[in-house]
Amino acid sequence: MAEIKREVIEQFQFEGTYTEGIPYGSGHINDTFRVTFQEEGKTKRYILQRMNTQIFLHPEELMENVEGVTSWLRKKIEERGGNPDRETLNLVPTKQGKFFYADTDGDYWRAYLFIEDAMTYDLVEKKEDFYESAVAFGNFQGLLADYPAETLHETIQDFHNTVKRLDTFKKAVEADVCKRAADVQEEIRFVLDREPLAHKLCDMQAEGKLPLRVTHNDTKLNNIMIDNATGKAICVIDLDTVMPGLAVNDFGDSIRFGASTGAEDEPDLSKVSCSMELFELYTKGFVEGCKGSLTKEELDMLPVGAMTMTYECGMRFLTDYLEGDHYFKIHREGHNLDRCRTQFKLVRDMEEKWEQMNEIVNKYR
Ligand code: A2G
Asked: Residue ranges of the Aminoglycoside phosphotransferase domain (predicted)?
């Protein structure tokens, strides 16, 4: 984790005198801090992030996306009488009026208003929270339905191109730079046995059977802020991967993360399964939130989206494990392997519950 630099603090239009900066949240990609300022007895807090430019190779383009999308959301939220300071992320500009600062070491930083009296959750604590998050992600798609998607930059090329992910995985197995492949033969076989799954949605997209939409691409429960007082989902966060994509993948990633009965890195796999109760709650909320905008094919493919995203994510964790853990931040030895195993346990569980998943989707379409 990087340190906050004085130089950085001084660049942004923060109000008051800097008193504290602490690491914040459980993100795997950027370094996130909550910074506190005091002015005339009043406390102001902000989120300050050092962007991961190993992963996001074009931070200027990424910030153009974030600026475009957050100002669009602000306008839409104002129009419907909401509170844009709480219902969308709001960038804090630098003193030069830019939305990021490149420091003297070449690190890129950005800042947001901190949303007070709201939290994110890594695990579903109350079932309503998960339903709320579904409505929020559905809504997010709805609010951005007429956003000019072609103006968005692809912040990570082929982010959810599962076929390319599989290709990268195979290369990692072959190269085996850390000599770890021998110990994970079962997991490698698991991926290879399901090759057709990697192709399903990519093929449909190529054939024009699934429309390209503005998507979030990282729709985990913990990317939604829930208001402490009302229990309502108020704000979608982490907009780094907002780009054109498939709605079913946004749906699928939420199920992967939030409908699991265990944490993403739970080492005890007996605690990990895909809860059909949570799957149903999310399906209901998401379909409602999208307000009739999903096509027949998209609705048909919701369960495939769930399975594909889970499979892809497990494969990405395994690739990173094989390559020496350079992508996802790890906090213990074998962390990426534990994460991979939870994902594959979920895929297996979904395979067993396949019929039920399809019945649930049919109930809400
Ligand atoms: O970890 C990150 O948020 C990833 N984001 C996301 O794709 C998913 O793999 C997740 C798993 O918890 C990026 O790679 C940008």
From this structure: 23-258
